[in-house]
Each structure stands twice: as structure tokens, then as C-alpha cells.
Specification:
Number of helices: 16
Bound molecules: adenosine-5'-triphosphate, magnesium ion
Number of strands: 11
Oligomer: single chain
Largest sheet: 5 strands, parallel
Strand order of the largest sheet: 2-5-6-1-7
Distance between the termini: 43 Å
Radius of gyration: 24 Å
Helix content: 40-55%
Structural class: alpha/beta
Strand content: 5-15%
Length: 380
């Protein structure tokens, strides 16, 4: 990395030098996947699931484990998801001469609906094309593919299905059941099902659903302040800049230690320091950067705000000013005219389902930690 290049990255999957901490989680994930376990990786949005998985996959590759990474939400139909699943599994399955026979067998058995273009090893695959085509009968064959290939090719595989909470959108329970059914037979293949909206993922693991007890859930925590501080200070120091301790603290608090937001504010602070060529950065500098970020977002926040009911707005104002701990207390409910606790609870639940709030360690928090700053600014 060049000395002046902004080292703080947000909004994309980070690995390699941009990746902070998570040593224990990473080691566990790598070990479990290499072992052929099935893991559910859960956290609120933007805590770093995809980045952690991406790091784990890099490490697994170094151990000669064949890896596949699919984002469930990228596909618009069940047929397309199955196609891409098969395609990526086939691509990961080389060396080609070893698995070729099994691929031909797979192609034969799901005929006439499958065309595998073996070519040079770049498999492209197409299931039925008509809109009314029902791919469900092919699902067991497709989901069995990793196990077959790994067993017969004599290798291990690790597969990530990211944004797994979206899987129900394809074909309701039948995808879950078909997948579960095949996955549990595959001792050579580790799976990580990563998903946000923990409540939805928790539902998927409920006793009535196919994935109940199919693997241990792993809840991803925030990254500890200590690790963030080392990382941020190290980069600023490399550029000859010092960041005061209270400024660093303010940065982490404003970001609520959410990885995405820590990186985002640090990124802006870096650019700001470059522009002004400031060697000493303090709390006012962090505040200036945060304020300009909030201003940039104001139009978006305004639109979001207008879509909320008065009750929801009042609850957000109370949360922004008083925090989550006392939200049901009588004095906060009176101060913000929230009405009875049951009304507050209903508003909070609806804000949760709108992805404005989420829960972390039993407390509600703003998924976007800059939104409460805008709310406070607006109602000041
Ligand atoms: N270990 C990490 N080190 C440094 N930054 C990280 C780390 N994990 C996450 N981040 C920051 O958080 C951002 C979001 O991470 P990522 O996309 O991995 O989260 P996610 O949990 O998969 O989010 P989503 O639920 O939206 O898919 C990254 O772009 C990066 O800025
Ligand atoms: Mg992700």
C-alpha cells in the first residue's frame, strides 16, 4: 500500500491487510470448515460476516481445500440459484481430469434439463428456460454435487452461502428441506450459512424448520476497541499524524464500534487530515468529519423520516437522546410522550423490521449510528 493511499475501506469485503482482529473467530471458522462442519454465522448487518468468511476461504485455499462462495441474495430465481450453485461447485472441483467423469454423470442424470459445457474446464450450466419451469425436482441432485465431487475427487470442500436469510424467498420451505437433506450427508464438505437479520435466521433454526440442530450458530461480536485503536493509530502514525486518545474514543463511540462505520469515519478523517495536512488530530477534527458525513446523508435521512409514523419518530427521538436502557421507563415515556410501554414496544418492533433498529446483546441500537445524530440535530 502506498504511503498516502487511504487504508480505511468500507462498503466492500475486506481481507488481507485491511482485516482487523477476529483471530479467534477466524481460527474457529477455518478449523470447523476444514472439519466438514455446518456453521451458522449470525450478526446484525455490517458487522463483518462476509469479510470473515472471505478471510477463512483464503486460509482454507492455502490448505488445498476447494472453496465456493455464493451470495444467495444475488439471484432472482430458484433456477438461477441452482445453476450458479452447480456452476461454482463444478469450477471449484478441479483438477479436471479427476472429476470429469462425475460431472458427465451428473449432466446425464439431470438430462434433458441440464447442459454442461465442459470445454476447458469453465463450466457453464443452464437449467430449463421457460418461465414456468420448476427447478425443485433437480434441487437434490444439485445440492448433492459437492459431496459427490469431494468424495470422488479425493478432496475437501468449504462452501459459504452468504445472505442465507434470503433463501426462503425462492421456494419457501422446500429449498431449506432439500438443502438440509443433502448437506447433512456430506462429511467432506464444510458449510457456513451466513446471515443478518438474526431474528429471521433464528426462525430458520427453530424446531419446526429443516435446519433445526444442523449446526452450531456462531454469533459475531463487534471488534474490541483495543484492536480498532491499534489499527487506526498505526496507520495515522505511518503518515506522521497523531490522533489524541479522546478523539479516537469519540470516533469509536460515534461509530458505535460497528465495523463498517468505524472504517467509514476513519476513512473520512484520513482524507480530511490529508487535505489540511494536519499532524495533530483532536476531538474537534473528528466532530467536523462526522458532521459533514451527517450532512451528506441528510436528504436520505429526511426521506426515511417522512415515511415513519409520529409514534415511531418519537421513539427514535427518545432512543437518540436517552439511549436504549430506559426507553420503557416512565420518565422517558412521559418526556417524549410515548404512551404506554406496549405502544413503545410495537413501535420498536416495526422499526426493527424496517432495519432501522436491531438488537445487540439484548439492547436495541441504530443500525446506522449517524442517524441518531441527525435526529438530535433536527429536533434540537
Ligand atoms: N475484520 C474487519 N476488519 C476491518 N474492517 C472490517 C472487518 N469486518 C468488517 N469490516 C468493515 O465493515 C464493513 C462491512 O463488512 P462485511 O460486508 O464483511 O459485513 P457483513 O456482516 O457481511 O454485512 P452485511 O450484513 O451487510 O452483508 C467492511 O466493508 C469493512 O469496512
Ligand atoms: Mg455480508
Amino acid at each position: 500500500m502506498a504511503n498516502t493511499e487511504n487504508p480505511f475501506v468500507f462498503g466492500e469485503i475486506v481481507d488481507d491487510v485491511h482485516f482487523v482482529d477476529r483471530t479467534a473467530e477466524l481460527a474457529q471458522l477455518v478449523r470447523d470448515l476444514a472439519d466438514g462442519q455446518k456453521i451458522f454465522l449470525l450478526s446484525p448487518r455490517r458487522f463483518g460476516k462476509s469479510s470473515l468468511v472471505s478471510m477463512a476461504m483464503l486460509k482454507l485455499k492455502k490448505q488445498h481445500i476447494h472453496t465456493v462462495n455464493l451470495t444467495v441474495s444475488s439471484y432472482s430465481s430458484y433456477a438461477q440459484f441452482l445453476e450458479k450453485f452447480a456452476e461454482k461447485v463444478l469450477r471449484a472441483a478441479g483438477p479436471w481430469n479427476i472429476v470429469k467423469d462425475w460431472i458427465s454423470r451428473f449432466a446425464r442424470s439431470v438430462k434433458p434439463d441440464v447442459n454442461v459445457n465442459l470445454g476447458t474446464g469453465e463450466a457453464t450450466l443452464s437449467l430449463g428456460k421457460e418461465a414456468a419451469f420448476d427447478p425443485a425436482p433437480l434441487a437434490p441432485e444439485v445440492f448433492a454435487l459437492p459431496g459427490e465431487l469431494a468424495r470422488n475427487g479425493g478432496f475437501r470442500m468449504a462452501i459459504c452461502l452468504d445472505e442465507f436469510q434470503q433463501i426462503g424467498q425462492f421456494n419457501g420451505g422446500s429449498v431449506e428441506a432439500a438443502l438440509r437433506n443433502e448437506v447433512q450427508k456430506q462429511r467432506e464438505v464444510g458449510y457456513v450459512f451466513a446471515g443478518s437479520q438474526p431474528s429471521l435466521m433464528r426462525e430458520m433454526l427453530a424446531s419446526s424448520r429443516p435446519f433445526h440442530k444442523s449446526g452450531p450458530p456462531m454469533f459475531l461480536d463487534k471488534i474490541p476497541s483495543r484492536e480498532w485503536k491499534d489499527f487506526i493509530l498505526r496507520h495515522f502514525r505511518r503518515r506522521g499524524r497523531a490522533l489524541a486518545d479522546d478523539a479516537l474514543q469519540a470516533l469509536l463511540e460515534t461509530a458505535d464500534s460497528i465495523p463498517y462505520d468505524v472504517q467509514r469515519i476513519a476513512h473520512e478523517l484520513w482524507d480530511y487530515a490529508e487535505l489540511k495536512d494536519k499532524k495533530q488530530l483532536g476531538v474537534p477534527d473528528v466532530e467536523a468529519v462526522v458532521n459533514s458525513l451527517v450532512t451528506t446523508q441528510a436528504t436520505y435521512y429526511e426521506l426515511l423520516w417522512e415515511q415513519l409514523s409520529k409514534k415511531q419518530q418519537a421513539v427514535l427521538q427518545a432512543l437518540a437522546s436517552r439511549g436504549p436502557a430506559d426507553i420503557y421507563s416512565q420518565h422517558v415515556r412521559e418526556e417524549f410522550r410515548l404512551g404506554p410501554a406496549s405502544t413503545v414496544q410495537k413501535a420498536i418492533q416495526s422499526l426493527d423490521s424496517k432495519d432501522i433498529l436491531d438488537r445487540y446483546q439484548e439492547n436495541y441500537f441504530f443500525l446506522d449510528p449517524l442517524f441518531p445524530l441527525w435526529i438530535k440535530r433536527k429536533s434540537a
